[in-house]
Amino acid sequence: MRQLLRKQWVQAGLAAGVVALAVGLWLFQPWRLFTSSTIDEALPMPPAPPVASAPTSTGTTAAVPEPTTTTAPKPTTVELASGAFVTQEHKTTGTAKVLRLADGNRVLRLEGLATSDGPDLHVWLTDATAGGEWGKYDDGRYVKLGALKATHGNQNYAIPAKAELDGLRSVVIWCDRFNVAFGSAPLSL
């Protein structure tokens, strides 16, 4: 009877250990310490204006006045704010820029980003100052721009048209699973 009881305890302990290991691997994803990804997105360009079609011939010749053309200044992309990333919980470097495109849309562009991989990483604009205590970014106002596309390179994130940028002071690479900032960059919006 004692040997049977001992075997059951051993089996239960092994089963609990396997479950704990599986949960720990899923939660912490330690292999991400050794993985990275790279992306190189071009600066977003607004769609080209429609091209006027040539007039079609109807067989009759009528004098059609030549249209007059005026050269309007070409709309350009405007940088609204920029800042260099500072390391917080994980080493992070690069530059963040908030841009207004020629069509009026706004984007956050990360250039030369280099950070660690991690589970559930996202890009946020926040009202917290960059740097300092790494858990503060979800305490105030923030705008979620999406999942981090890659740990390295140049990437663009559309800023929703309804997003109010006044008072937002930083961009943060945020780990939603553990509520920590990998890195942040100051912005003056």
TrEMBL record:
Sequence ranges assigned to domain DM13 in this UniProt record: 76-188
InterPro entries listed in its UniProt record: DM13_domain
Entry's transmembrane regions: 12-31
Compositional bias of kind Low complexity: 53-75
Coiled-coil parts of chain: none
Alphabetical keyword list: Membrane, Transmembrane, Transmembrane helix
Protein name, entry field: Electron transfer DM13
UniProt organism field: Allokutzneria albata
